[in-house]
Design goal:
The complex is a heterodimer of chains A (110) and B (114).
Chain A: E1 4-7, E2 10-14, E3 19-25, E4 29-37, E5 43-48, E6 52-56, E7 59-64, E8 69-74, E9 83-91, E10 99-100, E11 104-109
Parallel strand pairs in A: 2-11
Antiparallel strand pairs in A: 1-3, 3-8, 4-5, 4-9, 6-7, 7-8, 9-10, 9-11
Chain B: E1 5-7, E2 10-13, E3 19-24, E4 31-38, E5 42-50, E6 53-57, E7 64-68, E8 74-78, E9 87-94, E10 104-105, E11 109-113
Parallel strand pairs in B: 2-11
Antiparallel strand pairs in B: 1-3, 3-8, 4-5, 4-9, 5-6, 7-8, 9-10, 9-11
Classes of the chains: A mainly beta (110), B mainly beta (114).
């Protein structure tokens, strides 16, 4: 099946710093989403980005489908950005069947 | 618009018992998927329902089953609970039309098996 890797596994930043999270996937996909999981377990939608670039406030994401990777950029990080960030992909022809990466655990220190 | 809701939020069961979890999708969404999250295995796909039919199934034993009703609400059932079934169970819904595949997750049901 499709493999999804995320890097780095853990990231510690000072408030105000910028960061880039990476997601690599091993096969063609027709859906890619980034999520932030809060301490209570809720998965919060950040981006639906099977290709191209999107921005939402301090966050932006880029997916290069032909090269099978996606990047999530967080600028001017805040303590509320702490948590686990997941990339999830869905393969062509497999319906609504997400394969999740292992996540990047981000800790933003005041 | 109300988000995906899941009930109950927390549940404690004993080994050998069975459990039923419920998920109400966002209004207008016809696809409902279920995922299990554990510290060791991460987030894993259980199954997906669309128009009351199971369309996809993950690699879980037959003790895990589900169904979808005509109003798109879904339930999943786990029979003969094992300690390893302790997990956060997440439900997601989507419209499932062209260009409408974005999935939205509920808050989850945290199941503890003792």
């Amino acid at each position: 099946g499709i493999q999804v890797e995320q890097s780095p596994p853990d990231l510690i930043l000072q408030e105000g710093a910028n960061s880039t999270l990476r997601c690599n996937f091993s096969d063609s996909v027709n859906n890619l989403q980034w999520f932030h999981q809060n301490p209570w377990g809720q998965l919060i939608n950040l981006f639906y980005i099977p290709s191209g670039t999107k921005q939402n406030g301090r966050l932006s994401a880029t997916t290069v489908a032909t090269e099978r990777y996606s990047l999530l950029y967080i600028s001017s990080s805040q303590t509320t950005d702490s948590g686990v960030y997941f990339c999830a992909v869905e393969r062509f022809g497999y319906g609504q069947n997400f394969v999740f990466g292992p996540g990047t655990r981000l800790s933003v220190l005041p | 618009k109300a988000g995906v809701t899941q009930t109950p939020r927390y549940l404690i069961k004993t080994r050998g018992q069975q459990v039923t979890l419920s998920c109400s999708p966002i209004s207008g969404h016809r696809s409902v998927s279920w995922y299990q999250q554990t510290p060791g295995q991460g987030l894993q796909f259980l199954f997906e329902y669309f128009s009351e039919t199971q369309r996809n199934k993950g690699n879980f034993p037959g003790r895990f089953s589900g169904r979808q009703f005509s109003n798109s609400r879904s339930e999943m059932n786990v029979s003969t609970l094992e300690l390893g079934d302790s997990a956060l169970y997440l439900c997601a819904s989507s419209r499932q039309g062209a260009g409408e595949a974005e999935q939205y997750f509920g808050p989850g049901t945290r199941l503890t098996v003792t």
